[in-house]
Amino acid sequence: MTPPAVGQCREFSLPWQEGGIEGFVVATSTGHYAYLNRCPHTGAPLNWQPEQFLNFDNDMIQCALHGALFRIEDGHCLHGPCQGQALQALPLRYEQGQLVIELEKNKQKDSMC
Ligand code: FES
Q1: Of 71 and 109, which is predicted with more confidence?
Q2: How many domains does the chain have?
Q3: Domain annotation covers residue 59
Q4: Whose CA is nearest to atom 4 of ligand 1?
Q5: Does the beta carbon of 75 sit less than 6 angstroms from any atom of ligand 1?
Q6: Which of 10, 34, 55, 113 has the least C-beta neighbours within 10 A?
Q7: What is the mean pLDDT of the chain?
Q8: Is 25 near ligand 1, meaning CB less than 6 Å away?
Q9: What local confidence, expressed as pLDDT, does residue 113 receive?
């Protein structure tokens, strides 16, 4: 996928095993970070609207349902009902200017995006 610009987020869906994975990428001045779109509190999607995952100040990921706040760089919940838990990070790499999410499945790697 094309990397989002700093301060922006991008959602994606990946085919995975018998279902799929819903995730998102956040871009900051320090890099890109990818997570499952699932709050550790209830498993609900995090976004407010399509591509909208950040709080008003654009410095934390915020769950739209109960307002938990997550540090962008490591997904740790710093405030809210799931404080101390973390978002599930997805492995991310750059390839020829594109972002690639790489999931391992029985030692066989599936490159996606
Ligand atoms: S579902 Fe995310 S804080 Fe409750």
Answers
A1: 71
A2: 1
A3: yes
A4: 66
A5: no
A6: 55
A7: 91
A8: no
A9: 54
- What is the model's pLDDT at position 111? 52
Give pLDDT, residue 109. Answer: 47
Instruction: List the CATH number of the domain containing 90.
Output: 2.102.10.10
Domain-located, residue 51:
yes
What is the 44 CA–ligand 1 centroid distance (Å)? 7
pLDDT by residue (tens digit) across 9-61?
A: 999 998 877 788 999 999 999 999 999 999 999 999 999 899 999 999 999 99
Which residues form the domain of 58?
A: 9-112
- Which of the listed residues 36, 38, 41 should we mutate to test ligand 1's pocket, taking the one with most ligand atoms within 8 A of CB? 41
- Specify whether the backbone of 37 is left (phi greater than 0), alpha (psi in -120 to 50) or beta: beta
87 lines ligand 1 (CB under 6 A): no
The token pair that represents 20 in the structure block: 């799929």
* DSSP at 76: B
Ligand 1 and 40: CB distance under 6 A:
no
Say how far apart CA 45 and CA 64 lie, in whole Å: 8
